[in-house]
Amino acid sequence: MAETVTPSGTTSPGHILASLDPLLREWLPRQRWFAGKGRPVTGFSLVSATELLPSGGRLGLHHLLVRAHQTPAPGTAAHPGDVYQLVIGAREALPPRLAPALIGHVEQGPLAGRTVYDALYDPRPAEVLLEALRTRARIGGLRFERDRRQEIRDGLVARLLTAEQSNSSVVYGDTFILKLLRRIVPGVNPDLEIPLALAREGCARVPAPTAWLLADLNGDSYVLAVLQPFVRGATDGWELALRELAKGEDFTAEARALGRATAEVHTALGRALPTVTLGHGQLRQLVDGMVERLAAAAQAVPALRPYEPGLRSAYEALAGLAAEGRTWTAQRVHGDLHLGQCLRSPDGQWSLIDFEGEPARPLAERRMPQPTERDIAGMLRSFDYAAHSTAPPAPGWAAVCRAAYCSGYAEVAGRDPRTDPVLLRAYETDKAVYEVVYEARHRPDWLPVPLSAVHLLATSDQL
Fold first, then answer.
1. Cβ(88)–Cβ(61) under 8 Å?
2. What is the pTM (predicted TM-score) of this model?
3. Within 13 Å of residue 433, how many CA atoms lie on the same side as its CB?
4. Going from the N-terminus, what domains does the chain have, and what CATH number goes with each?
5. I want to staple 215 with a disulfide (CB 3.0 to 4.6 A). Which of 155, 222, 267, 345 is the partner?
6. What pLDDT was estimated at residue 4?
């Protein structure tokens, strides 16, 4: 994609990026959502720049899409660089409350003498975004859209959620939550596409989008942010599971209810979006992808290598069924389902959130129809993670939760995922291999958790 500038103010966008360059080289790689960790940033190029509040005022506000150029990882081909969404505030000085948001002090260019910071930490700039969504504003190449059937009141106070995640979320008065995507790619993003489709189906398990932010650049459309109702008083499934584990409380009723909620979402998605039949050719491609990921993981994490033949057998067993003529139905799924992607409201209802899929995978792959077992495998692995977060681990807790979840799923779907153990094992294996690489890179202390699952998956037909 050719680089494009879409300014709406008088400040030169190119000069702004030049003045920010040395600060961004230090700040950007430290952010949780920066995908290129471990490789130096060699420069930036501007994809778009939009002035949301004038630079000359007490508070300047700039929306930037910036491509970060990096040294390629060893053994990989050159990459054009990931594009990141930045909302940058500019003040003469930062008040102490905004210290965590500091990017740096600008020495040259149109922002010289100003202090720049991540504006999402600041309620006033965050409220500017909400007002633009409420009024369906058009600013430069940015399009603020909303569902006119849903009201967005003004005057809602903004606060940034500071939990680690791959994007950034702002809550407005416990009424709405804005998810701002950080690493963006052109095309239809499932984090907007799927909740909109489920809203049309009347599926109450997923909050319906209230508004969304798009950018149109060189004929490509980008989804930049999605605003949804905030589930007040909700607890995410991971937090709830750990709490019950710590108290020694039973979690099977919640696991069963979560299974039913998952099946309701899958059923609605099967109605809302096209389904396909996977035959031998399609399954062969799916299995080949799993085998390639395993080989790359074993290369990256030596501790995985002794298990590689056993893990590969899980994929070969699936390919063998396909070769015998077995077929499977594939549909749109969540794509990255785990306990942390589920919310339990105070009245006990479960909701599913965050349909972006695994951000590291290509957008086209994330939008491909898949067997529902992919989501189910992700949740089963999540129970295992929770069970291993205690000292000592509680594998029995995970086993009963897995059974309850699958039983709950069967109550709604009319089909128990355990009746297709070969497919389920293949997807659990693929997920565990992904976890091994992730933990080795980001949280080495957690590496024994997926490795224990890898040991079981490599030596038995199922966990």
1. yes
2. 0.90
3. 30
4. 13-229 (no CATH), 235-459 (3.90.1200.10)
5. 222
6. 40
